[in-house]
Amino acid sequence: xxxxxxxxxxxxxxxxxxxxxxxxxxxxxxxxxxxxxxxxxxxxxxxxxxxxxxxxxxxxxxxxxxxxxxxxxxxxxxxxxxxxxxxxxxxxxxxxxxxxxxxxxxxxxxxxxxxxxxxxxxxxxxxxxxxxxxxxxxxxxxxxxxxxxxxxxxxxxxxxxxxxxxxxxxxxxxxxxxxxxxxxxxxxxxxxxxxxxxxxxxxxxxxxxxxxxxxxxxxxxxxxxxxxxxxxxxxxxxxxxxxxxxxxxxxxxxxxxxxxxxxxxxxxxxxxxxxxxxxxxxxxxxxxxxxxxxxxxxxxxxxxxxxxxxxxxxxxxxxxxxxxxxxxxxxxxxxxxxxxxxxxxxxxxxxxxxxxxxxxxxxxxxxxxxxxxxxxxxxxxxxxxxxxxxxxxxxxxxxxxxxxxxxxxxxxxxxxxxxxxxxxxxxxxxxxxxxxxxxxxxxxxxxxxxxxxxxxxxxxxxxxxxxxxxxxxxxx
Amino acid sequence: xxxxxxxxxxxxxxxxxxxxxxxxxxxxxxxxxxxxxxxxxxxxxxxxxxxxxxxxxxxxxxxxxxxxxxxxxxxxxxxxxxxxxxxxxxxxxxxxxxxxxxxxxxxxxxxxxxxxxxxxxxxxxxxxxxxxxxxxxxxxxxxxxxxxxxxxxxxxxxxxxxxxxxxxxxxxxxxxxxxxxxxxxxxxxxxxxxxxxxxxxxxxxxxxxxxxxxxxxxxxxxxxxxxxxxxxxxxxxxxxxxxxxxxxxxxxxxxxx
Lengths: 476, 257
Description:
The complex is a heterodimer of chains A (476) and B (257).
Chain A: H1 25-33, H2 36-57, H3 63-79, H4 81-94, E1 98-102, H5 105-118, E2 123-126, H6 130-135, H7 137-143, E3 147-150, H8 153-160, H9 177-187, H10 199-216, E4 219-222, E5 226-228, E6 233-238, H11 242-248, E7 252-258, E8 262-263, H12 269-280, E9 288-293, E10 303-309, H13 313-317, H14 333-337, H15 339-344, H16 355-366, H17 383-387, H18 394-402, H19 409-422, H20 425-441, H21 453-456, H22 469-475
Parallel strand pairs in A: 1-10, 2-3, 2-4, 4-7, 5-8, 7-10
Antiparallel strand pairs in A: 5-6, 6-9
Helix pairs in contact in A: 3-12, 9-10, 16-18
Chain B: E1 2-5, H1 9-13, H2 16-28, E2 32-34, H3 44-49, H4 52-66, E3 72-74, H5 77-85, H6 87-93, H7 97-108, E4 110-112, H8 113-120, E5 133-136, H9 140-145, H10 151-157, E6 163-165, H11 180-183, H12 185-201, E7 206-209, H13 212-224, E8 230-233, H14 234-239, H15 242-247
Parallel strand pairs in B: 1-2, 1-3, 3-4, 5-6, 5-7, 7-8
């Protein structure tokens, strides 16, 4: 294919999909923090996953080398992404699939909706997929009179609850089993009214509901964890077997994949298939790994469509520092170790990509101005960088994006004045004295004016010392 | 050895006892400490709040001020982390490769106090006496940017009279994060609440760390709740001796009610 260069690549369009929140992170987090149930669920779930993941990672003697290999593969991939995508397109096409290029969420939704319509279906079953959540595919299908059915248990809970996912891997992490029972009783067709909230009973109810869907639905929509440019092979890893059903039973399979998911060679999968389950679910190997290459006559879906989604990714790729965010394999290890995510939860981030990776990916996909509070939704503690199986330096990207964020005017003025003062030692010493005097005269440790009131609302300020260090040194 | 003290703006202004203790400790160990008086701030607050252009002049100042010294020591993991891991990037972003190279060189000569004591001076027993029950919070930047690891604990274990108690979930951030504590005050406070819960669970009298900033945060919360637990910089514990303990010279990191 040919392209004309038209300037900077576009960011993800507004008004479609789920990359932008309705309010800034601090306000959304403030409401989440008072939700005792949410706090307890998150603390329990993240602590459990951290423990499991840490144990199985500890078994791998070459974990650091694997991480470095993954980073090298992803860096190479991003450096020649156009070439690899065209190689992938050729390989998929040669294997009997059809490749579609979607510049953004609007195009991708239209392509999928048209394909489902052409297949004569009014219902699709879905494999859990971040890309289709990102573009708001379910809403687009519903608007076209097509019913999407989520088949991952947690996604199903979110869908039936008319809710939004709050974790990349465990989208219903904010729900407890009593709530899940209520959601099933209210929204699951044909559910047994004597349903209890025992996990096995809830799972059995979902299984009965989904089995019916698997056997009667002719079109499936999936995402992809990986696509091999060399062979045209797509890969989905999952735990429940619903993915395997969706990928093998229907007549038509439509896969929506972010363009960054391509890897150069089949061999590269060995690195990621070792890293992903251990970092993600804390398993040595994921229960189901499904791979397919185009179509196989008489076996599996006889029509395969691959929709390659940009939706701001080329804009991310254009940023030398920020492009690392495209290395993400959606394991959610960074969420599980993040002290901010553990307390504020996923919805506070406003985007389908929460946690540390969301705080660097969402603002880049939308343009920083549309998600300006997210790069600040981190204490820069660095736990995410240590946990990331592909070594994305999330703290550095956060700091980099803060440099692109629009600043409040008063803050910008104060920061410029502070830098000027600190570049003049005599002024700086005078400012230290002035600060001490104002503190001695002013409110004693509490009730400072905004924005410092954020500090004094919950924390005392230190007693100003009788002299600064430099005054002491000068008198020594 | 001639050591240049990189005092950090926070210790200079609000926590001079930590800086004085650093001087006293290094001199007690037989070294000469100098204080380059043209130093101000490393610029970390500007960098981390999204003002790399304003930070550039502070990076340039820091690099120039400390250029003449072979060894620079600071009582802060965070500020040393900024010097070592951010200064060159700020310079490169501004297209100043020469400054970036100088910043990298300065970074290699700059040490956090516990690194300097254990790795450069090769001491773990600094001859300190501190008869209190103490828990240690590993600050995020000393833990994950500098990888100081067990060094502060090795130093504390060698302090006479000190009862060291392990802090549960020690590696979780206290919620300070510089301007994060103000911009995301609620989330920061939620993190602090859990940190304080763990500190109180140790029944320690003193919570120590290698960063005055994180201690200001933890100490501000402990003081607000009138817990009676004090925060004391690692340098102050290591500088303490029988004399300072008994004569009562030691100034405490007091906070205002």
